[in-house]
Each structure stands twice: as C-alpha cells, then as structure tokens.
Amino acid sequence: SDDESLSPWKWIWDVWKFAQEDTNRVTFSLKVGLACLLVSLLILFRAPYQVFGVNIIWSILTVAIMFEYTVGATFNRGFNRALGSLLAGIIAIVVIQVAMSTGRFAEPYVIGLSIFVIGALTSFMKLWPSLVPYEYGFRVILFTYCLIVVSGYRMGNPIRTAMDRLYSIAIGGLLAVLVNVLIFPIWAGEQLHKELVKTFTCVADSLEECVKKYLSDDGSNRPEFAKAVMDEFSDEPAFRKCKAALNSSTKFDSLANSAKWEPPHGRFKHFFYPWEEYVKVGAVLRHCAYEVMALHGCLHSEIQAPYNLRCTFQSEILDATNKAAELLRSLGKDVSNMKHSLQTTLLKRVHSSIVRLQRSIDMHSYLLTSNHDYHDCPAKPAAKPLKTLSFNPKDFSDCLTEPDANKVEPNTPLTMAVQAESYHETMKKQQRRLHSWPSREVDDFEEDGAIDAELIPRMRALESTTALSLSTFTSLLIEFVARLDHLVEAVDKLAKMANFKQECTS
Amino acid sequence: SDDESLSPWKWIWDVWKFAQEDTNRVTFSLKVGLACLLVSLLILFRAPYQVFGVNIIWSILTVAIMFEYTVGATFNRGFNRALGSLLAGIIAIVVIQVAMSTGRFAEPYVIGLSIFVIGALTSFMKLWPSLVPYEYGFRVILFTYCLIVVSGYRMGNPIRTAMDRLYSIAIGGLLAVLVNVLIFPIWAGEQLHKELVKTFTCVADSLEECVKKYLSDDGSNRPEFAKAVMDEFSDEPAFRKCKAALNSSTKFDSLANSAKWEPPHGRFKHFFYPWEEYVKVGAVLRHCAYEVMALHGCLHSEIQAPYNLRCTFQSEILDATNKAAELLRSLGKDVSNMKHSLQTTLLKRVHSSIVRLQRSIDMHSYLLTSNHDYHDCPAKPAAKPLKTLSFNPKDFSDCLTEPDANKVEPNTPLTMAVQAESYHETMKKQQRRLHSWPSREVDDFEEDGAIDAELIPRMRALESTTALSLSTFTSLLIEFVARLDHLVEAVDKLAKMANFKQECTS
Q: How far is residue A472 from each of residues A480, B462, B475, measured CA to CA in Å?
C-alpha cells in the first residue's frame, strides 16, 4: 500500500516533467481554455446573445474544433471551415430555391435527393489523393449543408438561418485565430526548424553510437535473437531516436504544410519563406539515415567480422566517423543559427579520412579474403593472417591450451593436422555462436556423416564471409560519407533560398 | 482548344479508374449519402421532429462526423463520441448544480471558470502520448460541455437539453453504425490482411527488380546525381512501392487499432483474432525491407563494382535472389489463403543457394582485393585479374586502341609503363564517372602537380573499394536471407495464433 500511496505523486511528477519538457504544451492548454472562456462570454453576457440568438452556440463549436496546436494549422483548419461553410451555404441556398420552385409536394424529395448526392460526392472527393489534406473541409461542407437545408425546411427562412450561422462561425473562427496568434503563438515554422536541427543531431549521434558499439563488440555479450528482430536495445537510445526520425516524414510534411499558412514571424522574416526546402533537406537526411540503418543492421547481423579484424581498422573507422559526425553537427548548427558557412574544410577532412580508410583496407585486403591465399602463396607476410584472421583470441587461446595440442612439437605434420582440426572446431563453434542462420542445416550435415567432405569448404566460405562483413561495414560507411555531399548541397540551397547570414569562417 | 475540350473526358476517365481501382470507395460514398439521407428523414418527416424538437439536428452532425471508412474506425469513433458526450454531460450536470447553489450572482463566474479549466485540461490531456488516439474524444468532451453548460445557462432546464442532445447523438450514432455494418461493410481487418499480403509481394518484387538492375547495369546509362538523392527512378516501380511500404507502419497500426473493435466477420471467425500479430509480421517484413533499401543504395551508390566482376557471380546472386523471392511470395500466399504450411523446403533451398554464393565468393575472393597481390605473388592464376578486375571492357579496349600503346612491342619496360599510365588514366576516367564524391579533391590534387605521388596509391585504394562494393552487395543479400528466418518464424506464430488451416505440403 506504500507503493500505491506513492503512485499519485509519481503520476504528478510525470505530468510535471511532461509539461516542463516542452512548456508550449501548457501554453497551448491555457490558450484553449481562454478561447473557450471568451467565446462563452458571448452567451453568458446578455447583449451579444440577444443580437445573434440561438445560433451563437455555433461559435463555441467552431472554437473547439478549429483551435490547433500551431498557428499555421489553425489558419489551415480555419480556411477549411470557412470555405466549407461558404460552399455549403451557397449550395444550400441554390438547392432550396430549386426545391421551393418545384412546389410543396416535391420539396422534401428534392431535399432528400440533394442530401444523398452531397453526402456521396463529398465522401468520394475526400478519398482522392490530392484532396486528402482537405478531408476536414469536406466534412464541414456535408454537415453544414445538411443542417442548413434540413433546419431551413423545418424552421423556415433558411437564408436567415444560414447567415446567422455563418456569422457565428466567423466570430468563433476569428476568436480562435486571434487568441492563437496574439497570445504566445506557437509557430509551425519554428517547430519545423527545430525538428530539422534535431534530426541532424539524431543522425550524428546514432552514427557514432553504432560505430562505437561495432568496434567495442568482442562478441562476448551478444543479445538474443528475438530481440534483434525488433531492433530494440536498451543501450542504443540514439538509434531509437534515429529510427523515429525515419518515420517522421509525415510530421515534416504536415508542419511544412502548416508553416506555409503562417505570416512572416520571428526569425523567418520574409514572405514565401522556403519551407519546402526544409522538407527536402529532411529527405536527404533520411537518405543518409538509411545508411545508418544499414550500418546498424551490420552491427546486429548474425554474420560478424572477428574482433581482431575490426581492431585493425579501428583508428581509421573511428576517425572517419568522428569527422562525418562533426560535419553533420556543424551543418545542424548552421541551420539552427541560420548561418550560411561553406563547409569545404570539414568536407575535405571527411573525404581525406575516408581515403585513409580506403587505403588501409587496400593495404590489408589480404586479411579480408580467406586464408587459402596464405597457403597458396607463402611469399606474403605470414605472421599476420593467423593472428588476425577469422577467430577471436579467446577461441584461439582455448585451442592452444588444449593439453593434446600443447604436448606435440610445433611444425610437424601432426601438429598441423591437429591445429587444422581444432581450427575448424573453433570455426564451427564460432559459426554456431555468430551465424545462427544456417544452424538447422549444419545439424543436418552433422547427422549425415559427410562432415569432413562437406563442412570444411563450407567453413572456408563462411570464414571468408565473416571477414567480408567488415568490408561491408566500411563500404556502408563510405557510402554514408558520399551521401553527405548531397546533404551539404541541400543545406547550401536552403541557406541561399532562405537568405541565411553569409559567413566565410571555413 | 482541342486539348481543353478533351481534358474533362480525361478527368472523368481518371475518376472512373480511381473508382474501379477499389470499388469500396464508391460503396463508402454511397453509404455516407444513404446515412445522411436517413438521418435527414427524421427531420423531414413531421413525427420524429415533434418528439425530439430542435435538438434532433445533433444526429445529423453525429452521422457526418462519425461515419468512417471502415467498420472498426466507425466503432472507435462512435466510442469516443459516446464516452466523450457522456463524460461531458456528467461533468456539466455536476458543475451546473454547484453553480446554481452558489447563487444567481456567482453563477456566471463559476461557469466561466469551469469552461476555462475543462478547456485547458482536455487540451493538455490530448497531448499526452498514450491519449493521442483519443484526441477526438477530448474534443467532443470540450465542445459538448461548453454547449450544455452555456445553452443551459441561457435557455434554462440544462438537464433536459443535455438529455435531448444525448438522445439525438445516440440516434445519429446508431444510424451511422447500422448503415456502416449492414450495407456492404468495409472491414478494417480485411484491409489489414490484404495490406500485409501486398507488402510481401512488394518486398519480393523490389528485391528482384533491384538485383536484376544491378546485374544488368554496365555503367553505360547511369542517371544523374540529383535524381539519386530523391530515390526516384521511373524504371523502378516496385522500389517505389517498397518504399511506400516502409512508411506504412502508421497505416498498419491504425488498421490493427480499428480491427480490434470489429466483431468476428467473414474469414476471421474467432473472437480476439490476433490482429497485433499482423503488425508484428509487418514489422519483421519492414526489417527485411530495410535490407532491400540498402541493396538499392548499393545499386545507386557512387562506388560501383565493375560490370565484369558482377557477371562472375551473376548466376549465384540470381539464384539466391529468386529463391528468396519465391519464399517471400509463398509466405505471402500462405497468409493470403490463411493456410499454415511449413516452409522448410523452400527455406533450405534459399540457404543452400546462399551457401553456394558464399563458396563462390570465397573461391574468387582474390578478385575482390586489389591487384598488387597479383604483382607481389605471381604464383596465382594470372589471366583472370587483368580481365575481370576493376574496369569496364570498353575502357580497356579504349586504352588498347590508343595509337601510342599499340605501336610499341609488348613486354618491354616501356610498354609496361605506358600500360600502367593508361591504366591509371582509365581508372581516373572511371573514377570521375562512377565515384563522383571525391571529384573536387582529385581536381585539387591535379592542380597541385603532385599527381603521380599522390594519385596512384589513391587509385589503388579506390580500385580495391570498387571491387569490395560487390562483396557489400552480396553481404547485404546474405543478411536479407538471414532475416527471412525471422520472417518465417513470425508468420509461423501468426498462423498458429490465428488458427490458419494446417497443411503439410512441403
């Protein structure tokens, strides 16, 4: 019961933190309260009520339905509502005139038919892909039309009803817009700007996180299988954010869509501010983030390059990663500060670090192919392959400390055979642990009895694949860097179109 | 003017095709029309109007706002509307009692304050992440509360008003539900089922498309740079669909969310049908599709393996791809027919085709490393590397038909030098064309004058990277196949939980 008595405090604490995380949330809530209060005053006071009559309640409905989080979204919704009501009003007046001219008997049939047609037509139109954003407008047309026509038929003087209602809606809409714009406005443009900057940081963070984990992963604490499917690891907060960023294309679109409705404000001073460019930069950034996803797939792949091999290229990989992340952060900072600085220095540094990585891979490329080269061609440096090639030091020392293997003198054919045997033993063990995918089949083969004939070449193949997994990782990293060029270009274009402050620092 | 007279026909034709593509769209539209007509009859006929009075217009509003595309969504929205109205009604009645007990003078202040508090509270709550799906419910609470309290204050007898309105809303809601369920119902569950099956086909198609394009791409008709950023290629319809599938996680979620509200229907006969499993299979499928995205990134990467090298592994890559696509399609077909068949045979075939690919890569792994091995170690087969290594035959023949190179006799040191020169010339050309990313720097280096000292090792590095790009492609393909295991598992679990028909065909 002590826990339960604590839980409301915990709950209040959660709510407090939620509010503190983004104080706009509280601002928004209070603004809605205020708008509702103001519109209610129209009815609570006697004077306005006497002018507009019962229809004034429509202004309450309008405020409650129109008030959106951002200024742009409110404008957009207001536009939908206004145009929808207007269209509905016009259609209603025309239809009522037609219906009345058909005489008392036919009137309800004409009205009924028109309601059916309008209902079907608006519903069909709002499914049309390019009209989907105006879904709300079509709903407004439908119910406003029905209300005007039906209550007009029943209560008489439909045009008067329609006009009164339109006035009420206009009052409600105006009030919602005024409260939304004049009192601590929350601009969609500002939100979009911040969202883009945040995405830059997300991608940079998750790139660093992924590479760091890849280089430090010695295979000892591999998580289970099922977890890998769902892509959820508690020690990868940045990745989760990056994945969320990948799914945020709809958010970008809707924010940009709202921002277009907003007048110049704050830092975004000129008309026709290029919000579309924000969406484009976001798309290129997502394009880069796909590469991070692939790197992450490599990190959690069942086929893994041995730890030693990864260590060989550690400094180059780390260097390239850090430079790339630095460039990303610098771009994000530029966008954030609305500065336009040429990133050539950083870009050059990233490129040269990638060239170093490529060169290092080239120099050590013999490590990436399986060790039959080593047997075929003894002219090559002999020390390295055995030490760094394809298995963990732990496994290697395991088989070295095997009593049988230690007693025999080195370099005799027997030792070679034993070593080869235990080597393949090790490989098999490693294969079990790391490459779980063909496990069923391997078991099948073992039961067959054709182990030696079948298994050894397959081990070789797997071994080669494991080493090549490192080259996959670096290739993806290189591809990521290649995409940064597009990103720099896109940010450049944004900076030019949005008139960012020119700076020639780098 | 001839074009303009044709355009309405074109427009009608488009609409016709849009309707034919999914006849449910027409059904839905006609149903909305019917529902609106039925609810209007309540007012057009005198009898019901006399019972319910003016408040009957609320049933029209309810139908127009509640009627959604699928049965589940309509239920969900109806639930929001009903619970919201009920809560608003209860709160309103309590507050009105309190306000009336405070006396005539304080009453408007209490009402005003309560409106402010309810407005702020509902707006804050609907921002809370776990309450976001009930956003509409909070809106309903807000405006229903305001309407009841305010019109009650002004018009007297608030409880009577509230009850009349709730009856009207109930009538409207019931009508919307009845029309939606009884007349050609569109089930969210059915949609989700179809959507999942479609995604299987999408992933299989785009995998095949991507691999086919990769193997047939000889670098001759490379699209421009800017296009590659936006991931839009006219000859890749399947990829576009696959990308859309990647962004469809919200669609899956909302369909599953709606499907949970639906009673057993059609093929989905038992209660508590595991719609959540559909979402999970969809997630694993997306997880596979990320790998296809990476393959596609490889296809349009600026760093490309030479065509010849790709041809070397063509049959193995094609075989693995076809087997994987076959498995995907077979899984999709099983889900579509609600059958549960063990896919072990197909899975084994995919695995063995991947093993063949791995073995082939292992056997030809010397092709993947740069050719200084070839110079260092002449014991290796000498014919292959030069022919298949790192440049296109076209480029090679270009430099062979150069007059200077042809006149000199082969095998003299001079020829070697010239060949090396023209080889690096070729490499540079190829680098320009294929790896545009370091182009700025290459130009910088050329102007420096330190060309030979710097460029040749860099060419080597790039050359090695180009060859390794093939290994990246195959690694990604292998990783894709590895993920198919999870997919088979997920489909298995779905089949068990949803009681698919057992079949022991394979």
A: 12, 15, 7
